Each structure stands twice: as structure tokens, then as C-alpha cells.
Amino acid sequence: MPAMTILIERAEGVTTITLNRPDKLNSFNAQMHSELRTALAAAAADGTRCLLLTGAGRGFCTGQDLADRVTPPGSPPPDLGASLDANYNQLVRLLKGLDMPVIAAVNGVAAGAGANLALSCDIVIAARSASFIQSFCKVGLIPDSGGTWTLPRLVGQARATALMMLGDKVGAEQAEAWGMIWRCVDDAALMTEAGGMARHLARQPTFGLALTKRALRASGGNGLDAQLDLERDLQTQTGRTRDYREGVEAFMAKRPPRFEGH
Questions:
Q1: Share of the chain above pLDDT 70, in %
Q2: Which residues face 102 on adjacent strands?
Q3: N or C: which end of the chain has fewer CB within 10 A?
Q4: 122 and 11 inside one domain
């Protein structure tokens, strides 16, 4: 039986998933896709209140393991569109659709689909030595895994176009300065910072945070009137929660709130 390609830890409401093919810089093969989809579905159903995604070894993820796509001489080329539908597109939709905060702790190189996987998370913290590379152009492909949607919204059209056409490496400090990620931290502090943030978010009113994610996802395609209507509808839901009542009572009593995610 092949070794697991991901590691899973659960504690204090946080599920930590570590991509675990360090000898391949955590590049994706079919097994890792399957195991990660299963783990994300489990986190959505098991009471997890925050998800933390990172990589083992010296890299976060370098995207697709090209060795997994080698075809015999004379055989038809692989259908990469079908591969996207079966794997990366499902993965991005799962991450974006999780009703909980999702943190990426980028511990080294994040290239190709690995970069766009990290950037599809809600909050990205990167080690100072980490880097992000839109490496698709180096093998004649277009960026995928939501990159052409995500990156322009983070850094603007001009920077996204140049990064995707040139394949230049962006260091973590530059990524923070450009607004591509939330924060760059010293390498030794990465998991302390990311784990502390994950535990903090797991103690927050996570139902409200899930609806915040829903509102943010919709904002890019909505006009102001539609977004105001959506905010009204979602606020109606949050206003009926036990967490809202607890937050108000705790504020009035000058005590720390005890949120349950309901």
C-alpha cells in the first residue's frame, strides 16, 4: 500500500493538512489529489472550525508532478482539460466553498498550480524564504487552478500579466508588499504564527466568517445595489445566531465571548 501523500492533524477546532511528498516538493499526483479531496470533505463535515494547509520539507507545492503525466511514445497527448475538471478545479472549488477560514502557510516554493492553490486560501502567511512562481509559461501552458481569476484581483492586471507571461519568481516580502499575501514572517516563526492564527479563528463566530467569505466571493460580480441586498440577507442570518447573542452579551458584561460557530 503506498504511503499517504498528506498528513492530517486535528486539535482545538483546527484541522492541519500537510502535503507530504517532500522528495517531489509536494507536487501533485493522482493519489494526492484523491486524498486531499477526501480530507477537505471530511473537514467540512467533522466540526472543524479552521483549516490550515502547509507542505512538508523545503517546499509548499510545485504544482503538477509531470512524471505522473508521461505517456508512451506514439500515444495521444493527455487531455489536460479533463485533468483540470477531475482534479484542480474540484480542489479550488472545495477550498473556496468551505464554510470556515482557510489559511495557507507557505513554507518554501509555491509554483504553478501550487502557487494558485495557496492563493485560493482565505489568508496566506509565507516564510521569508518562500516564493511564488507562475511557472506555466515555462512548459507552454496557460495558468490554471483559478490563477487567471485570483491573481489579477490580488495584484492588478499589469502585474498579473507580467508574472504569468514571464514566469518570474516573487519572494515572500515582495508578495506581501504587493498585497498578494497577508503576511511574510521569519522562517522559524511560520508555523507558530499560522497555528496561532488558526486557533484564534477557530474560537471566533465561524458561521459569520463563512458568510463573510460568501459575501466577498460575490462582490466581484455584483453591482453596489446587489451587494447591499446580499449584505442585508446575510446579516439577517447572522443576527439570528447564538453567536451574535453571545457576542452582544459578552460585550455588555465586559467578558470574553464564547463562540460556538452557530
A1: 99
A2: 51
A3: N
A4: yes
Write the CA distances from 125 to 17, 42, 78, 89, 172, integer angstroms. 15, 24, 34, 23, 9
Q: How many structural domains comprise the chain?
A: 2
Give the integer Cα–Cα distance in Å for 229 and 219. 11
113/163 same-domain check: yes
The answer to whether the Cα torsion of 100, 117, 187, 128 is positive or negative is negative
Q: Please say if the pLDDT value at position 245 is more than 80.
A: yes
pTM of the model: 0.94
CA angle, 131 as apex, 128 and 135 as ends, to 5°? Answer: 180
Question: Per-residue pLDDT for 168 more than 80?
Answer: yes
Residues with Cβ < 8 Å from 101, sequence gap 6 or more? 50, 51, 122, 123, 198, 201, 206, 209, 213
> Is the predicted pLDDT of residue 68 greater than 80, yes or no?
no
